[in-house]
Amino acid sequence: MDVLIVMPQLGNEIDEAQVDGWLKAVGDKVSQGEQILTITTPKLTMEIEAPASGVLKEITVAADELASVGATLGIIAGD
Amino acid sequence: MSDAQEPTRIVFETLGGDGAPALLIHGFASDRLSWGANQTAWQGVARLSSLDLPGHGESGMDVGDGRVTTLAHRVATLLDEKGLRRLHLIGHSLGGGVALILAHTRPDLVASLALIAPAGLGEQVDPTFLAAYPDLTEPGETEAMLHRLVVRPRLIGKPLVARVLNQLGKPGSREALRKIGDGIALSGPDLESAIASIGASTLPRLVLWGEQDAINPASEKKIRAFGGELIKIPDAGHLPQIENLRLVNAAVANFLKSIDARGR
After folding, report:
1. Can you give the CATH number for the domain in which A43 is found?
2. Cβ distance A36 to A24 under 8 Å?
């Protein structure tokens, strides 16, 4: 089952954030809770954890691109 | 009205949520937007507000003598103006020191303390960090300085470096931070008094500390005297609320829920 990696809510005033970089490549195995990418908001850089274990199937938003809160950043093909 | 016209203005923001009121107080050179990674988790258990301390963010740059007690007094005045009482205070670093002083001097304002690497309970806030930060001008040196805050350098991105320098470029910002840096160093006795009085009280309190904090290492002795629960956060330096946000978010949420259950 595919599981979406979603840009989280990051405060009332933050509508979008930049993907700084992916720590995993398409095809890599990932574990639930493992940090898989970093994002930067106007005030902080933070890591996003894999929402499920499986294989990183697709990167939807590449490094240095902006994405809105709630946007799909990538897809994990769940175990 | 501009900051120049209203230099003591404090920007206060109601964030919303369910539960008892809680106030987020950020650390040195940070601002109210720095809680973005935590806010959603805590809005499930508390009605959150945040502010920019004097000399930070969009607040006025008049910081008086820059002492923690002076900043706390300004915050107390603001809370009085808004008619707010019995807040759960969640403070990081300098903001934790402000929360300690508030709990000591204005206990009517404070229902509990959740402190993350607070000023006053550490060995010492690194004086070289406080002294050098206001004078940062170059991206390279700024990035190196910010790396000292965290265990994993990837948490200090170039956009963050650019925004730090942008904030420092605001009129009055560097001078305000210099005064606050000096003020933190002079606030030891005030903070010691606060710790002693709170330590003898029944005020619910939680202390969280990154195990690898290089800016304000935890003082086991002071924390023992302070009492309450201490949770050491692995894989984290001075910003555990970002570096290990799942653990910190859960610990603070559980703490607030436990107080709520006790009916405080």
Report:
1. 2.40.50.100
2. yes
Distance from A58 to chain B by nearest Cα, in Å?
Answer: 22
Quick one: which of A32, A40, A21, A51 has its CA closest to B242?
A40
| Tens-place pLDDT, residues A41-61 | 877 889 999 999 999 999 999
**Count of domains forming chain A:** 1
Confidence label for B163 from pLDDT (cuts 50, 70 and 90): confident
Model ipTM value: 0.82
Nearest residue of B to residue A17, measured between CA atoms: B159
Range of the domain at A66: 2-78
Number of domains within chain B? 1
In DSSP notation, A17-44 reads: EEEEEESS-TT-EE-TT-EEEEEE-SS-
Residues ≥6 apart with Cβ < 8 Å to A38: A19, A20, A21, A23, A45, A46, A47, A48, B154, B155, B157
pLDDT digit string, tens, across residues B87-117 = 999 999 999 999 999 999 999 999 999 999 9
Chain B residues with CB inside 8 Å of A42's CB?
A: 33, 163
Q: By the CB < 8 Å criterion, does B30 face chain A?
A: yes
**Residue B7, in any domain of the structure:** no
Q: Is residue B97 part of a domain?
A: yes
Q: CA of A19 to nearest chain B CA: how many angstroms apart? A: 10
Inter-chain touch A43–B34, beta carbons under 8 Å: yes
B6 in any annotated domain:
no
Cα-based distances in Å from A67 to A61, A75, B159: 7, 15, 15
Give the bridge partners for A21, in sequence order. A38
Question: Is A12 close to B13, i.e. CB distance below 8 A?
Answer: yes
CB spacing of B242 vs A44 below 8 angstroms: yes
Q: Indicate which CATH number applies to the domain containing B34.
A: 3.40.50.1820
Residue B146 touches partner A, C-beta closer than 8 Å:
no
Domain that holds residue B236: 12-262
Residue B152 placed within a domain: yes
Q: Which residues sit opposite B158 in a β-bridge?
A: none
